[in-house]
Design brief:
This protein has a single domain (5-291), classed as Rossmann fold (3-Layer(aba) Sandwich), CATH 3.40.50. It starts with a strand and ends with a helix. It has helices spanning 25-28, 54-66, 90-98, 145-149, 159-173, 191-194, 197-206, 242-248, 255-258, 284-291, and strands spanning 5-7, 43-47, 71-75, 100-104, 110-112, 124-126, 129-130, 153-156, 177-181, 210-216, 233-238, 276-277, 280-281. By secondary structure, the protein is α/β, with parallel strands linked by helices. The strands form two sheets. A seven-stranded mixed beta sheet has the order 5-6-9-10-11-13-12. The chain has a six-stranded mixed beta sheet with strand order 1-3-2-4-8-7.
Length: 293
């Protein structure tokens, strides 16, 4: 389907048919990728597994169409974290990584954080994306071992497999359990490219135990406007004053994009309950309530 270099079943199984909304009406409509602005990759790398399933092929084609000026390279022999960027200097490597989008698969995307001495509670998290297209100067991920080694922006096409693993974990725990999207990436920044929110949110809405906590700086909520969430998804934003964002978080959403003077609601989603505080939008109390419903 792609040259070497050019421009341009039920996932759950095992009696989990009630969770088919993740592959239902919203998922059955082919999603047309939109550029995830301001991210403009100069290079798109198709890594191992990117084209192994029909859904992955459709997504890859749609993403490449959204960025027609990007150089597309096939590296099907390399996993997503083994892409050579042709640089050794850490700063140059980081810069090239931010300009490179890698599409592949991630077979251990659902994990529980178990960090010794961690002040915050450990929790379950999952990764349909890797790293982040934003360029926040204070990003702690940039200093982690995995990102220093592989600083590219990543999209994983095996979302069905990831949701199936979440289903298995949540059913094994047999109690309302939060799964965080945003620990190792921005949870919404690449959603215009993938439309994953339109499959994930209905999945969690239909699940008896799994709950979604989505952490992001993105103001692009177009894919969320008509999605049924049943109060089982919590959206959590970091809001940074414009002057600080321009200086220390280039590429991330500005506060003016969130709170227009003509509306009191930070997000234009009438069916979503919003809890706002001066410096953040949080919903921990709402999440606890949703987790018990």
């Amino acid at each position: 389907m792609f040259g070497s270099d050019h421009s341009g079943s039920d996932p759950l199984g095992g009696g989990s048919d009630q969770l088919i909304p993740s592959r239902g009406i919203l998922a059955s409509r082919p999603y047309r990728s939109r550029p995830a602005l301001p991210f403009r990759p100069e290079r798109i790398v198709l890594a191992k597994g990117a084209l192994e399933c029909p859904s992955g092929q459709e997504l890859v084609h749609s993403i490449c169409t959204a960025y027609p000026r990007a150089v597309v390279s096939e590296r099907f022999d390399a996993p997503h974290n083994r892409i050579d960027l042709g640089a050794c200097d850490p700063l140059e490597l980081h810069d090239r990584g931010k300009k490179t989008l890698v599409i592949g698969v991630h077979h251990s995307a659902v994990r529980q954080s178990s960090e010794a001495g961690n002040t915050c509670p450990n929790y379950w998290h999952f990764s349909p994306y890797g790293f982040c297209p934003y360029r926040c100067h204070y990003c702690y991920l940039a200093g982690t071992r995995g990102v220093r080694f592989s600083p590219t922006v990543k999209i994983f096409v095996n979302l069905d497999e990831i949701l199936a693993e979440i289903d298995r974990v949540a059913r094994r725990l047999n109690r309302p359990t939060a799964f965080y999207l945003g620990k190792l990436q921005d949870g919404l920044a690449l959603d215009p490219l993938t439309g994953y929110s339109r499959r994930m949110i209905p999945f969690f809405a239909a699940h008896p135990f799994a709950r979604l906590a989505l952490l992001t700086k993105s103001a692009d909520v177009a894919n969320l406007l008509d999605v049924e969430h049943r109060n089982r998804t919590i959206l959590s934003w970091t809001l940074t004053p414009d002057a600080i964002a321009r200086r220390f978080a280039p590429g991330s959403g500005l506060l003016c994009a969130w709170i227009p003077s003509s509306t009191a609601s930070p997000i234009p989603i009438s069916s979503w309950t919003v809890s706002s505080r001066p410096h953040e939008i949080a919903a921990s109390a709402a999440f606890q309530q949703a987790s018990c419903s």
